[in-house]
Here is the input.
Amino acid sequence: MGEAGKTKFQSDLRRYLRETDEDRDLTRLICEIADASKYIINSIRTGDLGVAGTSNLYGEEQLALDVLSDRILRKRLLHSGVVANIVSEECNEIITVSADCEGKYSVAYDPLDGSSLVDVNLAVGTIVGIYKGCDVLLPGRNLVAAMYILYGPRTTLVLSTGKGVHEFAMNSLMEYDLQRENIQLAPVGNIYAPGGQRNKYTPGVEAFVRYLEEKGAKLRYSGGFVPDINQVLLKGKGIFLYPHLQDAPNGKLRLLYELNPMAFLIEQAGGAASTGRGRILDLLPRGIDDRAPVFIGCKDDVAKAEEFIARMG
Ligand code: F6P
Ligand code: MN
Here is the structure.
């Protein structure tokens, strides 16, 4: 890792947001989410690994940890005093916290992405998108902030409020210190993280992946969206894909909770995020459970994927 993107200043998350003149209520909201993450880490480290006996809005079996993380985050948001609506990957409907939208924020989140990896002790994360006002069924380009928290060997928080992407690392007092400011992606990368079963790839996606392999890109895939995106972003080069599959034209990943926040962050770092046929952040959600294929990372790599898909599907 070169020096680019490293910060010279020592600042914690709250102070950083204050010093960069962020809106007071947005600062409060971001800090509430950061605080919630301390409790989520604790439940990951020591909590029950079993199932909850319920399913989420995608019909997937919920783990006790999914339900607990959702509850931790929701409680914080409910009591923050700055939230209008909440929508979570683990909940079947939009939760209205305040009918008065004036000056409030609405939040879409995945409380514990990759939760099925906890029992094998791999990295997982929380993903959050923040909108101004009440509406959460907006194209992602309307986000005012996006962040993720990565629970790996270290705990890091990556945030953008539309002024670049910054990484904060949790210290021994469980506070987030600024680690790297203005993280930037190179135009072309040399790592690839391919999600989905390869024998279900369409001809265009298969040809694109072969193209990456022939030019010597290294395979770096953990099966967790947050650590996989974090690797691309912090190494500054690479592409993650979870494409349309022959039996799943919309891929797997969820637009509101996963793709929009990550697309916002990657674009803020100078990268791109596409369905293979258009910009993720321009998609108008039809429902809270929309999914979309995704090619996300270095700009030229994403453009190359679009070329293959336009030609071969
Ligand atoms: O929630 C989505 C997720 O767990 C992501 O973290 C990951 O990228 C993807 O699903 C992996 O899905 P699968 O293993 O089912 O292909
Ligand atoms: Mn998820």
Q: What stands out?
A: Residues 24-46 form the longest helix (23 residues).
